[in-house]
């Protein structure tokens, strides 16, 4: 059996009387591209914040890279990369300064960091923009740079929260090529998205509706199970089912 990189059992988060994440359970295998799908407000970001140590669960269990999310959040942070849905780099710093800053945050030596500059700039085609302020770059370049910096310290797992929101289709495709490359290198990729077509790029997909995981399988098996032509059709059926049960 493949090594389990992420595991949850009945993971729950409540804010007062509101349950944002409701008893979700799943495993993510090492090197897998795991899609966490759902409409805006479905609970995806809350779940990812619990797994990355940014938010304490109300109840349930979970582990990331072999560390307990309740008691070992600092150890988890050292082994993961994280890219938030709101662009996470500093607009008023240059490309080079952002790389240097995050290299320091991740504890990389100057020698290692120097070797990383060319690697990152080549990957995102920004050699001519190394001294440009990040705020002046197109959104797609910013997002690709942010992903590369999230991998700067060679983490075992990277969490991407709505990474392609607002970017054009060509850049989205380029971004997913970067995700494929990371997976081939053994990195586990946990990606949240509300773009249903992006589910087709994942090894397995979890679909959240109103804080619950309503389906989890490979894209092929999900479409087969629901007699659907696309993941979007699967999602619509699940969402309608949830509305009917609430009614």
Automatic annotation (TrEMBL):
Top-level taxonomic group: Bacteria
Q: Does the keyword ATP-binding apply?
A: yes
Record key words, sorted: ATP-binding, Nucleotide-binding
Stretches assigned to the ABC transporter domain: 6-235
- InterPro entries, per database record: AAA+_ATPase (IPR003593), ABC_transporter-like_ATP-bd (IPR003439), P-loop_NTPase (IPR027417)
Molecular-function GO term, any one: ATP binding
PANTHER family assigned to the protein according to its UniProt record, in alphabetical order? ABC TRANSPORTER G FAMILY MEMBER 20 ISOFORM X1 (PTHR43038:SF3), ATP-BINDING CASSETTE, SUB-FAMILY H, MEMBER 1 (PTHR43038)
Q: What name is this protein filed under?
A: ABC transporter ATP-binding protein
> Could you tell me which species this protein originates from?
Rhodohalobacter sulfatireducens
């Amino acid at each position: 059996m493949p090594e389990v990189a992420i595991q949850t059992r009945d993971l729950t988060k409540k804010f007062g009387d509101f349950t944002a994440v409701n008893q979700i359970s799943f495993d993510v295998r090492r090197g897998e591209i795991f899609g966490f799908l759902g409409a805006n407000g479905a609970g995806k970001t809350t779940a990812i914040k619990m797994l990355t140590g940014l938010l304490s669960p109300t109840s349930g269990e979970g582990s990331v890279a072999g560390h307990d999310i309740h008691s070992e959040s600092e150890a988890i942070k050292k082994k993961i990369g994280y890219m938030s849905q709101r662009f996470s780099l500093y607009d008023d710093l240059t490309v080079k300064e952002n790389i240097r800053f995050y290299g320091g945050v991740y504890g990389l030596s100057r020698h290692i960091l120097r070797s990383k500059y060319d690697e990152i700039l080549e990957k995102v085609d920004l050699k001519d923009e190394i001294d440009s302020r990040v705020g002046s770059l197109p959104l797609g370049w910013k997002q690709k740079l942010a992903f590369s910096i999230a991998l700067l310290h060679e983490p075992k797992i990277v969490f991407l929260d709505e990474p392609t929101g607002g970017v054009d289709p060509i850049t989205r495709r380029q971004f997913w090529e970067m995700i494929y490359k990371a997976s081939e290198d053994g990195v586990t990729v946990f990606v949240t998205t509300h773009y249903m077509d992006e589910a087709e790029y994942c090894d397995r997909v979890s679909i959240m509706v109103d804080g619950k995981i309503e389906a989890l399988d490979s894209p092929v098996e999900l479409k087969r199970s629901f007699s659907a032509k696309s993941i979007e059709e699967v999602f619509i059926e699940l969402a309608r089912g949830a509305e009917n049960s609430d009614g």
